[in-house]
Amino acid sequence: MWQSAYAIKGNIFYSTSPTGIAAVEGGYLLVADGRLAGVFNQLPDACSGLPVEDYGDCLIIPGMTDLHVHAPQFPFRGLGMDLELLDWLNTYTFPEEEKYSDLEYAAQVYSAFADAMRASPTTRAVIFGTVHVPATRLLMDTMEKSGLISYVGKVNMDRNASDGLLETTKRSLADTKSWLEEASGYSRTRPVLTPRFTPSCTDKLMAALGNFKKKFGLPLQSHLSENPSEVAWVRELCPWSKHYAGTYDRFGLLNGRTIMAHCVYLDKEEISLLRKRGCFIAHCPQSNMNLSSGVAPVRKYLDEGLNVGLGTDLAAGTNLSMFRAAADAVAVSKIRWRLLQEKSRPLTFAEAFYMATMGGGKFFGNVGSFLPGFEADILVLPEKRSGPRRGALQERLEQTLLLSGEDVCLRAKYVAGKKIFGAQGTEKLFPEAVSCIPKKYGESPEAVTMDAILRELERLDIPAERLTSKERMQIIAALEKQGIFQLKGIVKNVALGLHCSQASVYRYISQLKIGGIG
Q1: Which pLDDT value is given to residue 486?
Q2: CA-to-CA dists, residue 4 to 55, 366, 422, angstroms
Q3: Contact at 8 Å (CB) between 37 and 80?
Q4: How remote is the C-alpha of 138 from its chain's centroid?
Q5: pTM, entire model
Q6: Would the pLDDT of 449 be above 80?
Q7: Are 39 and 29 in contact (CB under 8 A)?
Q8: How far apart are CA 256 and CA 264, in angstroms?
Q9: Which DSSP letter does residue 372 get?
Q10: Mean pLDDT of all residues in 325-343
Q11: Is the pLDDT at 291 greater than 70, yes or no?
């Protein structure tokens, strides 16, 4: 029997195949020992005694997997979007990554990165670090505390790098070995071999990493055929290879535990090779647009049965939201279809949703769906509409995801069955949060600041930026019952802290028939 089990109630959506989405309105998601035990219209009688977290009319979807993201590039996202890949790397990426020899700087960035990832729709990620072993260990420590499940890689570069990043082959391998020896003991964070890309790694280094991969059974991440100038450069550097993919395959680096990001310009032989090896492709549509790289033929990859997921590719991609990645995947496929006059159709929303959830999740095993036996990565989000229209159930999912962008506003988030933030029964918890305030800060309303209120919300793991308007009203109502709104000056602090306008606060107070503020 199960050691722990609970149910989640709401409007449930999940992929069953690359083109199929199951939808259950007002259904129950049964979670047992961190895995999905079933989706039901009504909870079975045998489960009637289990705790139920009822999220009302919220949308319940699987967590999303970001197959390709660069943590050290977090500080300069949104910069240099007028450049192509190689110039962008030399102008922004390499100078920024040199800074991670400074652990204090690395700690500040990685803390902010992990917080942003925690608040995003991503539940699992495959992450690039830098060449620096101490900073990479710090990144692993930080991701471990985030509650997400991730792979983190120490980057290898023994040619064509800036002076501050360039390693000797011997040093690169020695550092990788020492890092791997110290990368055990984590429960949610694992190492992934990370040769940056063929131009930055000699054949000797690639061969040694291939031996590491085989000996230790490690996964590997890198870049493949992202930009025309990069592809041409690889031909010059590796004239012995028939194609770019062969520069990895020669050294045993391509198999079912390998992620190749981008893959915009693969030829037929390369596509066949990646399919044969079982590799994963990380499609990064926003990054490919921003750096003028092109549009990957993802329709072809899906039709031919390749493993395809999505990546945000921060910072060439400027947005950490996988919702945005899914929306961009559909958009760029239409551009490719129109401009190249391809016969194959553009991507559908169902296929983009699949890539963001089940397609990328497969890299971690049975992840990214609510099929029985899958790990329980779950997102709870309030429906987002642009007006009073209320469409069919799947239309509501599509509109919510495409309108959310980076303003995700998750209600709750679970990873492998464990809730990492969110509170069920907010109508009880919000009054509990504010009821502590007068006791801690004195009975006088003048002593109550918005900082105090937010600290109490944080204590209960209720992030203010994810509150809905209704939830903000509940907080205001609870504060009013204690006389905190008897002073006009507190309105500004409430508005700032709850991310709403002062006019909204006055309106809420008026609706609640709260007096004393004029």
Answers
A1: 44
A2: 20, 20, 19
A3: no
A4: 19
A5: 0.83
A6: no
A7: yes
A8: 20
A9: T
A10: 92
A11: yes
